[in-house]
Write a structure and sequence with these properties.
The complex is a heterodimer of chains A (436) and B (119). In chain A, 62% of the residues lie in helices and 10% in strands. Chain A is of the alpha+beta class and 436 residues long. In chain A, the strands form 2 sheets. Chain A has a 5-stranded mixed sheet with strand order 2-4-5-7-6, with helices on one face. A two-stranded antiparallel sheet of chain A has the order 1-3. In chain A, helix 2 packs antiparallel against helix 4, helix 9 packs parallel to helix 10 and helix 10 packs antiparallel against helix 12. Chain A is elongated, with a radius of gyration of 34 Å. Classes of the chains: A alpha+beta (436), B alpha/beta (119). Chains A and B meet through helix 7 and helix 8 of A and helix 1 of B.
Chain lengths: 436, 119
């Protein structure tokens, strides 16, 4: 789960904000701790609080100041590991000077680091924090106990070795248990967050695509409307001078037929557009994939006409239904067809083929376009990867298509040769019919 | 002899109604469904006026205007577009179009504009 590598800029900005807030909190808490220790030293006269530990806390506090500048320049993912190590070392240092195992409250600081790793980062970071905390905690306790490090005690008490080991073991297992919960809950939160973002993105992209389609559809609708107006005009004039019918090129019923036809086409186009702009909740139902593809083709048809692209249907008959959200799946085919149209620079052909496999339905969408260069093939489907100009697309079409296909438990593959065209092959599992 | 009008429009029904109205207005009308056919017809028939749709399947309307203007300074060229767009109008005029007509005006208004200019 190295989501930082393909991290989008907005996610990075969010993360930087989180880290900056963390920096403020850390600065504040370390400063308070520093002042507290200084007070203990000066007023309380605690002899074991030497200047080494106090200055270490001071350094920890001050280190949080260049944060704001640093964060924008570093690899955040790697940076957090360095940060956790310095935090855990200073916590262990303080722990040691506070009497090691005798100062149980200092342990809480480890939990804060582990919890934080869960909030801003991933399972690996949590695991890392847990292991480093456990090792350093053990080192402080064991080395202090056996006198490898000078034994510091507040109560003038030397704990029996078995008791030390049992307390140590208890603490370590608690650290690991806490790490597990931290990682688990952070995974869940992130999943929910990602799903929310994805829905938003899908909706936004749909709007972008709709904007792209609206132009084309509006163009067609206007043509239909002016046809209607013109034929109405012709028929009205004709009605005005019934007697002069000899030279007419058009009969009444022909004119009415044209009007009806144009009206129907406009209504159909508008219907498709409206269907496309809704953002309904997911609803998976047994679906005939041919119908979904036909809808997507209808939606993109004005674009095809404008780009001189022919469509060839090779639909398999009697395909098993697949469990699908019709609207989502339609989005996949719209994205693939729009891509295919963009890939065809002059005249071209898009072939959509469906066929029945054993336990799955296969769909091939191929075009005779410019193809995808070998070095770009692996990047297809990466968020925001696009070789098109920005006004043509954001590079999200295939990312979303991929996501939707995964949600349908399907698979997608791409084959392409530069200059010869591209084929996307998808497989969707068919609905299992339960035997009674 | 009646004046010649060439219509380049990819939408069959619109081409048809423009033909009907222009013929009724007394012009001899030629029509093409795409830019390339339009250019061929323009060269052969030497029309007095051309109505060119802005969105054509092959060349776009602007390109047709440029190519015609390159060899013929006299012919009246109108860019016809489904939706009115100020920048499109400006670009058309910059490229040598006589004027810009929005389809939303209706076929009658387009034909009336043609009559006015050729009168």
């Amino acid at each position: 789960m190295v989501y930082n590598i393909t991290m989008e800029e907005s996610t990075r900005q969010d993360l930087i904000k989180k880290y900056q807030l963390a920096g403020k909190i850390r600065f504040l808490s370390f400063t308070i701790l520093f002042l507290f220790l200084l007070l203990m030293k000066v007023v309380g006269g605690y002899s074991y609080l030497n200047f080494a530990v106090i200055s270490l806390i001071f350094v920890e506090a001050v280190l949080n100041r260049p944060y704001f500048f640093l964060l924008k320049r570093v690899d955040l993912y790697r940076f957090q590991f360095y940060q956790m190590v310095t935090d855990i070392i200073s916590i262990s240092w303080v722990l040691y000077y506070m009497g090691g195992i005798e100062a149980p409250l200092i342990n809480l600081a480890y939990y804060v680091v582990i919890l934080w790793a869960g909030v801003v980062s991933d399972t690996l970071a949590v695991f890392f924090a847990v292991v480093v905390s456990a090792i350093l905690f053990t080192a402080v306790v064991v080395l202090g106990h056996f006198g490898v490090l000078p034994h510091i005690t507040y109560f003038d008490y030397h704990m029996p070795t078995p008791q030390m080991y049992s307390i140590l073991l208890g603490n370590i297992s608690f650290i690991f248990a806490f790490g597990y919960f931290s990682a688990r809950s952070s995974d869940l939160t992130k999943q929910l967050e990602r799903k929310k973002q994805e829905d938003l993105l899908r909706h936004r992209r749909k709007f972008l695509a709709a904007g792209y389609l609206v132009g084309a559809i509006a163009h067609d609708i206007i043509n239909h409307l002016i046809t209607i107006r013109a034929y109405v005009k012709i028929l009205l004039e004709k009605a005005d001078r019934l007697q002069d019918g000899a030279k007419e090129r058009l009969t009444d019923s022909e004119g009415l037929k044209r009007i009806e036809e144009a009206e129907k086409s406009s209504a159909e186009l508008l219907g498709k557009l409206m269907q496309f702009s809704q953002n309904p909740k997911e609803k998976f139902r047994p679906t005939d994939i041919n119908v979904v593809i036909e809808d997507a083709l209808g939606l993109t048809q004005p674009m095809m006409k404008m780009s001189d692209v022919k469509i060839e249907r090779a639909f398999g008959e009697n395909l098993s239904p697949i469990l699908a959200d019709k609207d989502q799946l339609q989005e996949v085919f719209v994205a693939l067809i729009l891509n295919a149209i963009d890939a065809i620079t002059k005249k071209g052909k898009i072939t959509v083929k469906t066929q029945q496999g054993v336990g799955f339905v296969e769909v091939d969408v191929s075009d005779t376009g410019i193809g995808i260069k070998r070095e770009n093939l692996a990047k297809v489907g990466e968020p925001f990867f696009s070789t098109k100009s920005p006004e043509k697309g954001l590079g999200l079409g295939l990312t979303i298509a991929n996501e939707i296909i995964t949600r349908h438990k399907g698979k997608i593959e791409v084959k392409s040769a530069a200059g010869q065209g591209t084929t996307f092959t998808m497989r969707f599992p068919v609905v299992q019919i339960e035997n009674a | 002899m009646s004046k010649k009008v060439l219509v380049i429009e990819d939408f069959r029904r619109v081409r048809e109604v423009l033909d009907i109205f222009l013929i009724k207005a007394g012009f001899s009308v030629f029509s093409a469904a795409n830019g390339k056919d339009g250019l061929v017809l323009a060269e052969r028939e030497k029309p007095d006026l051309m109505l060119i749709d802005s969105q054509l399947p092959d060349l776009d309307g602007m390109e047709v205007i440029k190519r015609i203007r390159a060899y013929d300074k006299g012919v009246k060229l109108f860019l016809v577009s489904g939706l009115y767009a100020e920048d499109l109008e400006k670009e058309a005029l910059d490229n040598g179009a006589t004027g810009f007509l929005s389809k939303s005006l209706g076929v009658e208004a387009i034909v009336k504009a043609v009559c006015d200019i050729l009168a």
